[in-house]
Every structure is written in C-alpha cells, then in structure tokens.
Specification:
alpha+beta; Nucleoside Triphosphate Pyrophosphohydrolase; 2 domains; 3-stranded antiparallel β-sheet; 10 strands; globular
Amino acid sequence: MRKIEQVSTRIAHQTPWMTVRADEVRFPDGSTGTYSVLEKRDFALVIAESQEGYWLVEQFRYPIGRRVWEFPQGGWGAGKDGSKEELAASELEEETGILAGGWAHLGHLYAAYGYSNQGFDVFHATNLTMGEPKREASEQDMVHGWFSDVEVRAMMARGEFVDSHSIAALALLDQAKLRQAQTRR
C-alpha cells in the first residue's frame, strides 16, 4: 500500500518549545491536501513506586482549564539536552524531590501521533529517597502526593485521573509486572 507523500512543507508557527508545520501532501489515490504537524521534543514520564503505591503530581493544566493528577513528566528546556535516563531522573527530582536507586525503562510511546511527532519514554523508579522539589516557575502551583495503587485506579474510574500519558504508562507497568510474575513461575 502506498503511503501519504510530502509535496512541500512550510513552518506555520515556531516557538522555542514547538514548531507547527503545514505540509502539502499527496494521498495514495492522487488527491492532495494539507497536513498540519506539531513538532515537539520527546519527554520522559516516571512512575515512582513505593509501598504498593505511586507518587503523583497535581497541577493546573492551562489548555483544559483544570487541575489534574498525573505521574511526574516533562522534557528538556530550550537549550538543554541529555539522555532519556537523565531526563527522567531530572524530572522526578524537580517535581517531587525524589531520588531513585532503581530504574527500569518500560517503553516508548507516542503522545498524539495523529498530529504530532512527539513521543515519550516511560520509566519505573524504585528504592526512593525523599528530598525537596526543585520546581520551575511554571510549576509553582504543583503539589505532589502518594496514592495507593487501589486509590489511583479508583481515581481513574471516577474520572479524576485523566492524563492519557499516565494511564498508558500504568498499562506498561502492569504488563512489565505480569511478565515478571510469569518469569518467576
């Protein structure tokens, strides 16, 4: 099967954090159209687990106009760079003050591949040591707290834990734990 082909491209909007591209494309049937693409750098999401529960952060998310609970997550700021592992450790410490002694990479997912190239790496952090958060100015309203696994799943059922990245990450953790349990048999 033929794929969609790019005929031309132009930058429609650009900031230090993202670029919106307008691509003229040709579809497999020969018709043409415009495909808008949001380009953003990948980010890291961290499931920090202790005592059969997780550390979450809550903050106001401007685009949806409400506060939400989610796993710590974020990307490198403009002009910064490093490995995905360094990013995960940095985000966890920045948002919660937590340092982890154990790390496992659970997988790489895409945030919204229907219109964006941005992906994210999911990490499982264990052997946690508590410290003080080092939040950025844009995170000054952020709080963090520990929730049991049962509480997090109940929050999902009630529509209180709605971050799709966090929910997908939890599914990756469930799969990793299932594989681990099957290996022990």
